[in-house]
Amino acid sequence: MKKIILTISLLATVLFSTVQAQEKVSDQEERTRKLESFMAKLPKMSGFINVRYQYENDANSLDIRRARLDFKGEPAKWFDYRLQVDFASSPRIIDAFVKFKLHPMFNVQAGQFKLAFSLENPYSPLDLETLENSQVVSYLSGVNDLAGVKATGRDIGVAVYGGFFKQDGYNIIDYIIGLYNGNGINTKDNNKYKDLAGRININPIRPVTLSAFYYNGKIGPDGELVPRTRYGFGARYDDGKILFRGEYIKGKTDQKDSDGFYLLAGYTIAGKFQPLFKYDYMRLDLANENSRQINYLVGFDYWPHSMFRLQVNYTYRTFIQKEKNSGLLGIMLTARF
After folding, report:
1. 291 CB burial (10 A radius; 0-12, 13-18, 19+)
2. Which DSSP string corresponds to 225-280?
3. Residue 1 domain-assigned?
4. What's the CA gap between 47 and 69, in Å, rounded?
5. Rounded to whole angstroms, how far apart are CA atoms 314 and 300?
6. Phi then psi for 33, rounded to 5 degrees?
7. Collapsing DSSP states into helix, strand and coil, what is residue 208?
8. Domain range for residue 296?
9. Does residue 29 belong to any structural domain of this protein?
10. How many CB atoms neighbour CB 6 within 10 A?
11. 212 inside domain
12. Which of 70, 102, 252, 269 pairs with 321 at a CA distance of 20 to 30 A?
């Protein structure tokens, strides 16, 4: 009888200890889950630095092209935000927006962010293959705009966006439509009009994108308004190895008509090295034949590490007046953190 009682006592002790251990593990897992949930709601900081070297006509210079801090957060599944600041010349806000993710087909974004225009303009400097944007994107998409706006392709406004017909992790159709001040970043509107911009992308298969976009606005103070309209279309093939991208944009700024297009080709080798070629055509004023400029770019991107990228571009710029032809060598090192 004593042996039976002793055995039962030992089993009870082992069982009690096991239950206690399981409860401790369960408590620890719950605390870990809560901590992870709390940490996920905190802002996440990242950033990058662009160090650039340029050589042109026996002159050369080094500069800090960009030095950015980027804060992102997602307090809830239906809401996130972003704040990006550049310190390269003087501190300025680049992105500052919130997103309300209501439905895959309909969401709202408000604040300062990229214009809903062009296929290339949405690319960040970390994704853009070349050191600078194509001429037509720069001049007609708010980067170094012919309207006098120098705003990194951004503006202050409200946009709705979404996608339709999702399959294999991507949408067959994506759209974005926005209303903007039209004056660029960190600037209040100086007239009573809002500019309209919209873009629709059709993705028949994952690597292929067909895009069309439109911009209609006015710039200047009330009483001195001039038109600022643009439209264009583009296409892209990018399977992670082979890259082709091109687009055509035409615009009117006041009474001046402009247009241009580019064709970019690249091929990624071993995930680290990407040779590039670009044909870049721009007519600043269709009424002035001498305003035409064609750039031929050859170069490469090299990633020695996932957090570092080296870019080398040589651009030969040609004009109707051939004595103005010139070459520009650009080298840029990007460090991410």
Report:
1. middle
2. -EEEEEEEEEEEEESSSEEEEEEEEEEEETTEEEEEEEEEEEE-BTTTEEEEEEEE
3. no
4. 4
5. 9
6. -65, -45
7. strand
8. 50-336
9. no
10. 10
11. yes
12. 252
